[in-house]
Amino acid sequence: MTMHTKGPWWYGPDEYSFLSFGINSDNGAIAEVYKTRSAYGGRSFSPELLSECEANARLISAAPELLEALREFVDNACFSCSLKERCKKEDDVCLPVENGKSALAKATGVSK
C-alpha cells in the first residue's frame, strides 16, 4: 500500500485564485480546497464560504500530525490512561480506542 506524503503539510491562499487554498509539503502540492458554485447552490460567493474553505484546508494540512497523534493514543491508551480498567474487560469495548482504530483504518486503508 502507498503511504501518504510525509509531513509537515501547510496551507495557504492559492496564488492563482482568491477562492481557494492549496495544501503543500516539501515534496510539492498535496491538494487544493475550493468551493464551486454548485457546491453552495449557485449562490454568490461570500466571506463565510472563503472562511469555510480555509477551515477545511487547515484541517487537511493537520492530517499528518493528527494521524501520528491518533496512532500514539491507540497504541498507548490501554497502558497509560484512565481507560486501562475498561479496556481489559472482555465484555466491554473501550470505545475511544475502538473509534481510534476505526479512524486509523479509514485513514490508512488497513483493516483494524
Taking the alpha carbons of the first and last residues, their distance comes to 15 Å
String of helices and strands = EEEHHHH
Q: What is the global morphology?
A: elongated
Number of helices: 4
Q: Could you tell me the mean pLDDT?
A: 80
Description of the structure:
With about 110 residues, this protein is of the alpha+beta class. The chain has two domains: about 10-60, no CATH class; about 65-110, no CATH class. About 45% of the residues lie in helices and about 15% in strands. The protein has helices at about 45-60, 65-80, 85-90, 95-110, and strands spanning about 10-15, 20-25, 30-35.
Task: Label this structure with key terms.
single chain; 112 residues; alpha+beta; 2 domains; 46% helix; elongated
Could you outline the blueprint of secondary structure elements for this entry?
Blueprint: E1 9-13, E2 20-25, E3 28-34, H1 47-61, H2 63-80, H3 84-88, H4 95-108
Antiparallel strand pairs: 1-2, 2-3
Helix pairs in contact: 2-4
Structure summary:
The protein is α+β, with helices and mostly antiparallel strands.
